[in-house]
Amino acid sequence: MTDSAREADVIVVGAGPAGSTTAYYLAQAGLDVLLLEKTAFPREKVCGDGLTPRAVKSLIGMGVDIDAPGWIRNKGLRIYGGGVRLELPWPELANYPDFGLVRTRIDFDEILADRAVKAGARLHQRTNVTEPVVDERTGRIKGVIAKQNGEEVTFSAPLVVAADGNSSRLSLAMGLRKREDRPIGVAVRRYYESPRHDDDYLESWLELWDRDDKGDARLLPGYGWVFGVGDGTSNIGLGLLNTSKGFGNTDYRAMLKSWVAGMPEEWGFAEENATGPIRGAALPMGFNRQPHYTRGLLLVGDSGGMINPFNGEGIAYAMESGEYAADVIVQALARPTPAQRERALYDYPRVLKEAYGGYYTVGRLFVKAIGDPRVMKFATTHGLPHPTLMRFTLKLLANLTDPRGGDAMDRIINAMSKLAPAA
Ligand SMILES: Cc1cc2nc3c(=O)[nH]c(=O)nc-3n(C[C@H](O)[C@H](O)[C@H](O)COP(=O)(O)OP(=O)(O)OC[C@H]3O[C@@H](n4cnc5c(N)ncnc54)[C@H](O)[C@@H]3O)c2cc1C
């Protein structure tokens, strides 16, 4: 590799949704971008594979062909809880489409990385970033060291984006640890062959029941989902937040098995129909790693803990934060002096706080409240039977409102998010 092949305007570490979106928008603006990914596509990523209208909007913005084969659309959210089964269509809004999608991460991430490459980003797969290169005098990051085909390679750029997911070794190496005062979830999922694979609703279970042979039921902690993938399988999973009592001492795999064992037989969620093992991963929420900009390093997606605490959705926020980061970087790099560049870059954490800060604060209060099973029980018993209240709840949980000209529900949610302190 020549020297210039290892230099760029910006290095993006990690080609998940956050990294590929960042690289796409940077390349679109004409910047020279290196996108470094430790795995090789196609590759698995543990996820529910559910995309709300928020994520669909980002996909459309990046020019992804969502009419191509492999995408399955959904009309809304089906909720099970408190003995009730409720179907809520996605809201009709000016700002978002009224449908969601499902696509497994096996090729979802590759499609986004392809968009970045088509825009001009230089993608290096099987390139494991092991440490930052830091300027001793200023403490700023000025590149990264990576392992490529067993060899150490140094890549250089004045700005680096950490898009390396929940564990973000790059952020850690730059001294950015997780905040303990933020919610974090753990979730597991498994694919089963099922006649429900082409479900046109995303399904959310607010209560998980473990039924024994005698028909006695025991309430398990956590929430679950059943998302039809459209390829003959369904993605079934469950998660638990650290605000719940069972967090840390739960056998998630056993819990998933006992939960699906209680489901109707004809759905096919039986051991012999499982197409792979149960796999799990963490969900970092509510800005659990900060600051989002420091010394030449910007954090996007899970590395900055950007999963929505209300519903565990992370792909939309990974993509949106990638676009915000790219915007800020493009403006900053066009400034003539280092001081002016720095001023522009410090706008990134402010932009994020303005977009999500207040909403995430309300989300933190929400997960704290529902961590108490009595509150959850009250909410499912008294909330679910009220259609208007549930339409409001869907908008709140999925963060789907119109910022301008929305209805009364939109105005309440937007006002709450504005009034709550961003932290
Ligand atoms: C069980 C589960 C279910 C979920 N369900 C949903 C859902 O249904 N919908 C939804 O929207 N969100 C869901 N999420 C959250 C979602 O998966 C994440 O928020 C999303 O993947 C974040 O994207 P990202 O690009 O920030 O990080 P990631 O997707 O984690 O991507 C990080 C990338 O960086 C690469 N990388 C890491 N370290 C290095 C390194 N040192 N060098 C080079 N490359 C590196 C990785 O290989 C990876 O490609 C779920 C999460 C879990 C755990």
From TrEMBL:
<dbReference type="InterPro" id="IPR050407">
    <property type="entry name" value="Geranylgeranyl_reductase"/>
</dbReference>
<dbReference type="InterPro" id="IPR011777">
    <property type="entry name" value="Geranylgeranyl_Rdtase_fam"/>
</dbReference>
<protein>
    <submittedName>
        <fullName>Geranylgeranyl reductase family protein</fullName>
    </submittedName>
</protein>
<dbReference type="InterPro" id="IPR036188">
    <property type="entry name" value="FAD/NAD-bd_sf"/>
</dbReference>
<dbReference type="InterPro" id="IPR002938">
    <property type="entry name" value="FAD-bd"/>
</dbReference>
<feature type="domain" description="FAD-binding">
    <location>
        <begin position="7"/>
        <end position="179"/>
    </location>
</feature>
<dbReference type="Pfam" id="PF01494">
    <property type="entry name" value="FAD_binding_3"/>
</dbReference>
